[in-house]
Amino acid sequence: MKKQDAALIPSSSTVLAPGELPSAGAVPAVPEGFKVMDGTARQALLKVPAEQRAEVDQAMEQLWSERVLIAKDLGTLAPDADKGKALEERMLAAREANRKAQALAAYTDEQEAMANHAVAGHLNAASRDIEHMAERNPQIAERYSRVLTVVAQRRDAIATGIARAKASKADPKKG
After folding, report:
1. DSSP secondary structure letter of residue 26
2. Which segments of the chain have a pLDDT < 70?
3. What whole-number distance in Å separates Cα of residue 86 and Cα of residue 55?
């Protein structure tokens, strides 16, 4: 690893001092029985582009604030003002919940990456020490086979990736 690449990887002290994580129990789960909408159904939905949200919000507010005048002007064709208000509140609540969920997802993804880095480093260090001691006392390796196996699997995956990258450089048609 190059020196500048190593500088980009957080140190153990950085990893062990991350921001606070919410408890997994505090993160709400999706409602029971929820199924993700298929692509065709989702594509059929009317969209509100991000750059048009302010205008949509203002239009919904106008429908509510002018509901009495609209009822006079449109008579039986007037939209249901209470339904419009409820729809707007749901849209705004969903938007805010989504914004917070997206931010939390980005934050926890980064925290997980840093925690995984710290755990992998810890396992590597423990494995080196176990392998060192196993040179003198072979039964030690048997007692810690899970630690040694996971580190060996990581080494093999890294070696396979390096070999694949070298092969694709050597023959660009295969990469």
Report:
1. G
2. 1-18, 172-175
3. 18
Token pair, residue 107, equals 């934050």
- Give me the sign of the Cα torsion angle 92, 98, 99, 104: positive
Q: Which residue has the tokens 């048609």?
A: 173
Q: 127-162 burial, b for 16+ CB within 10 Å, e for fewer?
A: beebbeebeeeeebbeebeebbeebeeeeeeeeeee
Q: What is the pTM of this model?
A: 0.68
Q: Report pLDDT digits (tens) over 4-50.
A: 444 555 554 445 556 788 889 999 999 999 999 999 999 999 999 99
Q: Which residue has the tokens 């003002």?
A: 81
Through-space distance between the first and last CA atoms of the chain, rounded to whole angstroms: 23
Q: Is the dihedral of CA 157, 162, 168, 170 positive or negative?
A: negative
